[in-house]
Protein backbone atom coordinates (compact mmCIF):
# COMPACT_ATOMS: atom_id res chain seq x y z
CA UNK A 1 0.00 0.00 0.00
CA UNK A 2 1.18 3.50 -0.81
CA UNK A 3 1.97 5.94 2.00
CA UNK A 4 3.26 9.49 2.21
CA UNK A 5 6.63 9.71 3.94
CA UNK A 6 6.58 12.71 6.30
CA UNK A 7 9.73 13.83 8.09
CA UNK A 8 9.64 15.76 11.36
CA UNK A 9 10.11 15.44 15.09
CA UNK A 10 8.28 13.66 17.89
CA UNK A 11 7.33 15.79 20.89
CA UNK A 12 6.62 14.93 24.50
CA UNK A 13 6.87 17.94 26.85
CA UNK A 14 3.45 19.30 27.76
CA UNK A 15 1.65 16.32 26.30
CA UNK A 16 0.17 12.99 27.46
CA UNK A 17 1.48 10.19 25.23
CA UNK A 18 0.34 6.64 25.76
CA UNK A 19 1.41 3.31 24.35
CA UNK A 20 -0.13 3.82 20.91
CA UNK A 21 -0.33 7.59 20.46
CA UNK A 22 2.25 10.39 20.42
CA UNK A 23 2.70 13.96 19.13
CA UNK A 24 4.45 14.67 15.84
CA UNK A 25 5.53 17.96 14.26
CA UNK A 26 6.10 17.64 10.50
CA UNK A 27 8.75 19.71 8.77
CA UNK A 28 6.20 20.42 6.05
CA UNK A 29 2.68 20.79 7.46
CA UNK A 30 1.14 20.60 3.98
CA UNK A 31 2.03 16.90 3.85
CA UNK A 32 -0.21 16.30 6.86
CA UNK A 33 -2.92 18.75 5.87
CA UNK A 34 -3.39 17.06 2.48
CA UNK A 35 -3.83 13.55 3.89
CA UNK A 36 -7.35 12.25 3.20
CA UNK A 37 -9.98 12.51 5.93
CA UNK A 38 -8.59 15.37 8.01
CA UNK A 39 -11.00 17.80 9.67
CA UNK A 40 -8.50 20.35 10.98
CA UNK A 41 -5.58 22.30 9.57
CA UNK A 42 -2.21 21.98 11.25
CA UNK A 43 -0.26 25.23 11.67
CA UNK A 44 3.46 25.35 10.84
CA UNK A 45 5.59 24.64 13.90
CA UNK A 46 2.78 22.90 15.77
CA UNK A 47 2.38 19.19 16.44
CA UNK A 48 -0.49 16.78 15.97
CA UNK A 49 -1.47 13.63 17.81
CA UNK A 50 -0.82 10.42 15.89
CA UNK A 51 -2.72 7.14 16.11
CA UNK A 52 -0.19 4.38 15.60
CA UNK A 53 -1.41 1.92 12.99
CA UNK A 54 -2.13 -1.77 13.76
CA UNK A 55 -1.45 -1.59 17.50
CA UNK A 56 -3.53 -1.14 20.64
CA UNK A 57 -1.95 -0.47 24.04
CA UNK A 58 -3.52 -0.71 27.49
CA UNK A 59 -5.75 2.22 28.40
CA UNK A 60 -4.34 4.76 30.87
CA UNK A 61 -7.41 7.04 30.87
CA UNK A 62 -10.48 5.75 29.06
CA UNK A 63 -13.13 8.44 29.53
CA UNK A 64 -15.84 7.25 27.13
CA UNK A 65 -17.09 4.33 29.19
CA UNK A 66 -18.08 3.53 32.75
CA UNK A 67 -16.19 5.21 35.62
CA UNK A 68 -15.80 1.68 36.98
CA UNK A 69 -13.57 0.81 34.03
CA UNK A 70 -11.67 3.99 33.14
CA UNK A 71 -8.21 2.46 32.94
CA UNK A 72 -6.38 -0.85 32.66
CA UNK A 73 -3.52 -2.02 34.93
CA UNK A 74 -1.53 1.18 35.29
CA UNK A 75 1.90 -0.38 35.83
CA UNK A 76 1.74 -2.09 32.45
CA UNK A 77 -0.01 0.82 30.72
CA UNK A 78 2.66 3.26 31.95
CA UNK A 79 5.41 0.82 31.00
CA UNK A 80 4.02 0.87 27.44
CA UNK A 81 4.13 4.65 27.14
CA UNK A 82 7.64 4.71 28.62
CA UNK A 83 8.75 2.13 26.06
CA UNK A 84 7.18 4.07 23.18
CA UNK A 85 9.05 7.23 24.19
CA UNK A 86 12.27 5.27 24.63
CA UNK A 87 11.96 3.76 21.16
CA UNK A 88 11.46 7.23 19.71
CA UNK A 89 14.67 8.44 21.34
CA UNK A 90 13.46 10.21 24.48
CA UNK A 91 15.48 9.96 27.69
CA UNK A 92 15.21 11.43 31.16
CA UNK A 93 11.41 11.63 31.05
CA UNK A 94 9.81 13.40 34.01
CA UNK A 95 6.07 13.27 34.61
CA UNK A 96 3.64 15.59 36.36
CA UNK A 97 2.60 14.82 39.93
CA UNK A 98 -0.45 12.90 38.73
CA UNK A 99 1.67 11.07 36.12
CA UNK A 100 -0.53 12.29 33.26
CA UNK A 101 1.78 14.72 31.43
CA UNK A 102 5.45 14.91 30.46
CA UNK A 103 6.94 17.98 32.14
CA UNK A 104 10.60 17.50 31.20
CA UNK A 105 13.04 15.28 29.32
CA UNK A 106 16.69 15.42 28.31
CA UNK A 107 15.81 16.60 24.80
CA UNK A 108 12.45 17.16 23.15
CA UNK A 109 11.79 17.16 19.40
CA UNK A 110 13.34 13.79 18.65
CA UNK A 111 13.96 13.36 14.90
CA UNK A 112 12.01 10.81 12.94
CA UNK A 113 9.41 10.27 10.27
CA UNK A 114 6.02 8.71 9.74
CA UNK A 115 4.27 6.83 6.94
CA UNK A 116 0.60 7.75 6.65
CA UNK A 117 -2.17 7.81 4.07
CA UNK A 118 -5.24 8.85 6.06
CA UNK A 119 -6.68 10.37 9.22
CA UNK A 120 -8.68 8.39 11.76
CA UNK A 121 -12.47 8.22 11.50
CA UNK A 122 -12.81 11.41 13.57
CA UNK A 123 -10.55 13.36 11.23
CA UNK A 124 -8.32 14.33 14.14
CA UNK A 125 -5.27 12.05 14.11
CA UNK A 126 -3.15 10.81 11.22
CA UNK A 127 -3.01 7.01 11.28
CA UNK A 128 0.70 6.30 11.00
CA UNK A 129 3.67 4.04 11.25
CA UNK A 130 6.35 5.85 13.28
CA UNK A 131 10.10 5.59 12.83
CA UNK A 132 12.87 7.11 14.95
CA UNK A 133 15.94 8.76 13.45
CA UNK A 134 16.89 9.78 9.95
CA UNK A 135 15.28 8.86 6.65
CA UNK A 136 16.38 5.65 4.95
CA UNK A 137 18.87 6.07 2.09
CA UNK A 138 17.41 7.36 -1.16
CA UNK A 139 14.16 8.46 0.49
CA UNK A 140 12.82 12.01 0.55
CA UNK A 141 10.32 14.00 2.61
CA UNK A 142 6.92 13.92 0.90
CA UNK A 143 7.70 10.89 -1.24
CA UNK A 144 5.00 8.30 -1.98
CA UNK A 145 6.38 4.96 -0.80
CA UNK A 146 5.38 1.32 -0.56
CA UNK A 147 5.74 -0.18 2.92
CA UNK A 148 7.35 -3.62 2.91
CA UNK A 149 7.37 -6.13 5.75
CA UNK A 150 11.10 -5.58 6.25
CA UNK A 151 10.62 -1.84 6.53
CA UNK A 152 7.66 -2.35 8.88
CA UNK A 153 9.94 -4.34 11.20
CA UNK A 154 11.93 -1.15 11.84
CA UNK A 155 8.85 0.80 12.92
CA UNK A 156 8.02 1.68 16.50
CA UNK A 157 4.63 0.07 15.89
CA UNK A 158 6.15 -3.34 15.23
CA UNK A 159 8.70 -3.03 18.03
CA UNK A 160 5.95 -2.26 20.55
CA UNK A 161 4.16 -5.49 19.61
CA UNK A 162 7.33 -7.57 19.39
CA UNK A 163 8.46 -6.50 22.85
CA UNK A 164 5.03 -7.26 24.31
CA UNK A 165 3.96 -3.71 25.17
CA UNK A 166 1.02 -3.56 22.75
CA UNK A 167 -1.54 -5.84 21.14
CA UNK A 168 -2.11 -6.05 17.39
CA UNK A 169 -5.25 -4.33 16.12
CA UNK A 170 -6.03 -4.67 12.42
CA UNK A 171 -8.28 -2.45 10.34
CA UNK A 172 -9.08 -2.55 6.64
CA UNK A 173 -6.00 -1.69 4.64
CA UNK A 174 -3.62 -3.77 6.75
CA UNK A 175 -2.27 -5.92 3.93
CA UNK A 176 -1.47 -9.62 4.31
CA UNK A 177 2.33 -9.23 4.37
CA UNK A 178 2.15 -6.51 7.03
CA UNK A 179 -0.23 -8.54 9.17
CA UNK A 180 2.06 -11.54 8.79
CA UNK A 181 4.98 -9.51 10.12
CA UNK A 182 2.91 -8.29 13.06
CA UNK A 183 1.76 -11.85 13.73
CA UNK A 184 5.39 -12.91 13.85
CA UNK A 185 5.99 -10.14 16.39
CA UNK A 186 3.07 -11.43 18.46
CA UNK A 187 4.54 -14.93 18.51
CA UNK A 188 7.87 -13.52 19.70
CA UNK A 189 6.20 -11.52 22.47
CA UNK A 190 4.04 -14.40 23.64
CA UNK A 191 7.06 -16.68 23.83
CA UNK A 192 9.09 -14.12 25.79
CA UNK A 193 6.22 -13.51 28.24
CA UNK A 194 7.97 -10.42 29.65
CA UNK A 195 7.01 -9.18 33.10
CA UNK A 196 6.01 -5.70 31.90
CA UNK A 197 4.36 -7.05 28.76
CA UNK A 198 0.69 -7.75 28.25
CA UNK A 199 0.81 -11.49 27.66
CA UNK A 200 1.83 -12.71 31.12
CA UNK A 201 -1.53 -11.68 32.62
CA UNK A 202 -3.72 -11.57 29.50
CA UNK A 203 -7.30 -12.86 29.95
CA UNK A 204 -8.62 -12.27 26.43
CA UNK A 205 -8.79 -15.95 25.47
CA UNK A 206 -8.90 -17.44 28.98
CA UNK A 207 -11.85 -15.32 30.05
CA UNK A 208 -12.72 -13.05 32.95
CA UNK A 209 -15.52 -12.33 35.40
CA UNK A 210 -16.40 -9.06 37.13
CA UNK A 211 -16.88 -8.03 39.86
CA UNK A 212 -14.38 -7.54 41.32
CA UNK A 213 -13.66 -4.77 38.83
CA UNK A 214 -9.99 -4.84 39.82
CA UNK A 215 -9.61 -7.97 37.70
CA UNK A 216 -9.56 -5.66 34.66
CA UNK A 217 -8.42 -2.34 36.15
CA UNK A 218 -5.55 -3.51 38.35
CA UNK A 219 -4.66 -7.17 37.93
CA UNK A 220 -4.95 -8.46 34.38
CA UNK A 221 -4.37 -7.33 30.82
CA UNK A 222 -7.17 -7.59 28.28
CA UNK A 223 -7.23 -6.76 24.57
CA UNK A 224 -8.05 -3.03 24.83
CA UNK A 225 -10.81 -3.13 22.21
CA UNK A 226 -12.66 -5.71 24.30
CA UNK A 227 -11.97 -3.73 27.49
CA UNK A 228 -13.46 -0.59 25.91
CA UNK A 229 -16.58 -2.49 24.90
CA UNK A 230 -16.99 -3.86 28.43
CA UNK A 231 -16.60 -0.35 29.84
CA UNK A 232 -19.18 1.07 27.42
CA UNK A 233 -21.59 -1.78 28.25
CA UNK A 234 -21.47 -0.99 31.97
CA UNK A 235 -21.84 2.73 31.29
CA UNK A 236 -25.16 2.02 29.57
CA UNK A 237 -26.19 -0.93 31.77
CA UNK A 238 -24.70 -0.38 35.23
CA UNK A 239 -27.08 -2.81 36.92
CA UNK A 240 -26.63 -5.65 34.44
CA UNK A 241 -24.16 -8.51 34.58
CA UNK A 242 -21.81 -9.93 31.97
CA UNK A 243 -24.38 -12.48 30.80
CA UNK A 244 -26.05 -9.63 28.87
CA UNK A 245 -22.80 -8.41 27.33
CA UNK A 246 -22.85 -10.59 24.16
CA UNK A 247 -26.39 -9.40 23.33
CA UNK A 248 -25.30 -5.79 23.84
CA UNK A 249 -22.38 -6.39 21.48
CA UNK A 250 -24.75 -7.84 18.90
CA UNK A 251 -26.85 -4.67 19.09
CA UNK A 252 -23.75 -2.48 18.80
CA UNK A 253 -22.09 -4.25 15.92
CA UNK A 254 -18.34 -4.07 15.37
CA UNK A 255 -18.09 -5.18 11.76
CA UNK A 256 -15.00 -7.19 10.98
CA UNK A 257 -13.57 -9.76 8.60
CA UNK A 258 -12.90 -13.27 9.85
CA UNK A 259 -9.46 -13.72 8.32
CA UNK A 260 -9.82 -17.51 8.47
CA UNK A 261 -12.84 -17.46 6.14
CA UNK A 262 -12.48 -14.09 4.42
CA UNK A 263 -16.10 -13.31 5.29
CA UNK A 264 -17.59 -10.19 6.83
CA UNK A 265 -19.02 -10.77 10.29
CA UNK A 266 -19.09 -8.95 13.64
CA UNK A 267 -17.21 -9.09 16.92
CA UNK A 268 -20.12 -10.47 18.97
CA UNK A 269 -19.89 -13.75 17.04
CA UNK A 270 -16.53 -14.38 18.71
CA UNK A 271 -17.41 -13.32 22.26
CA UNK A 272 -18.85 -16.00 24.52
CA UNK A 273 -20.31 -16.03 28.03
CA UNK A 274 -19.43 -19.37 29.57
CA UNK A 275 -19.49 -20.37 33.24
CA UNK A 276 -19.91 -16.74 34.28
CA UNK A 277 -16.91 -15.58 32.25
CA UNK A 278 -16.51 -13.58 29.05
CA UNK A 279 -13.87 -14.65 26.59
CA UNK A 280 -12.85 -14.09 22.98
CA UNK A 281 -13.10 -17.31 21.00
CA UNK A 282 -11.07 -16.13 17.99
CA UNK A 283 -7.41 -15.15 18.19
CA UNK A 284 -7.10 -11.37 17.83
CA UNK A 285 -4.66 -11.80 14.94
CA UNK A 286 -7.45 -13.42 12.90
CA UNK A 287 -9.81 -10.40 12.95
CA UNK A 288 -9.67 -7.24 10.82
CA UNK A 289 -12.13 -4.45 11.54
CA UNK A 290 -14.03 -2.00 9.42
CA UNK A 291 -12.81 1.57 9.39
Characteristics of this structure?
about 290 residues, alpha+beta, OB fold (Dihydrolipoamide Acetyltransferase, E2P), 2 domains, 7-stranded mixed beta sheet, 4-stranded mixed beta sheet, 8 helices, about 25% helix, globular
State the end-to-end distance. 16 Å
Question: What coarse outline follows from CA principal-axis ratios?
Answer: globular
**Secondary-structure arrangement, i.e. CATH architecture of the largest domain:** Beta Barrel
Order of helices and strands: EEHEEEHEEEEEHHEEHHHHEEEEE
Low-confidence stretches: none
How would you describe this structure to a colleague?
There is one protein chain. This protein has 291 residues and is α+β, with helices and mostly antiparallel strands. The protein contains eight helices and 17 strands. The strands form five sheets. Strands 1, 2, 3, 4, 8, 9 and 10 form a seven-stranded mixed sheet that branches. Strands 12-17-13-14 form a four-stranded mixed sheet, with no helix packed on it. Strands 5-11 form a two-stranded antiparallel sheet. The radius of gyration is 19 Å and the shape is globular. The model has no long low-confidence stretch (mean pLDDT 96).
